[in-house]
Amino acid sequence: RARDAVEDYLDFIESHAEAISEDPRLVFDLARQAHDNSRAREDANKAVLSAEFIVRQAIARVTRLETSGVSVLSKAVAYARVQRGLARIAARGIAACFSKEQAAKYEKATALVGSSVQPAHEQLAQEGVETHAAEIDQ
What we know:
Elements: H1 2-15, H2 17-22, H3 26-67, H4 72-91, H5 100-127, H6 129-137
Helix pairs in contact: 3-4, 3-5, 4-5
């Protein structure tokens, strides 16, 4: 570990040699910037991992809802929650950080949820929410 730390330090000094030779005090600002950048990268990686979990969960939840015997209103609410979770990924800019494979899964999940939400909403609109709310109360 110590050898890695020394190598990292030497790499850092070599990559910023020109700026440090002009003003040696600059090394502290450069180190702070490097640290902030590594933290930002770390936070981005955590966000991508969380988003990847949400995508996997969305696909599983939609698949489970399609085969379940719950009311249409319950399904519509569950689909809307899944869709909201996927929309948050795009709104927060996390989807832009996905790899090609992750992006493909995200697009597949978004399409799957979208194709499930629409029929549930149409059925609710045709039959009326009150009918389905009565089913839940029973």
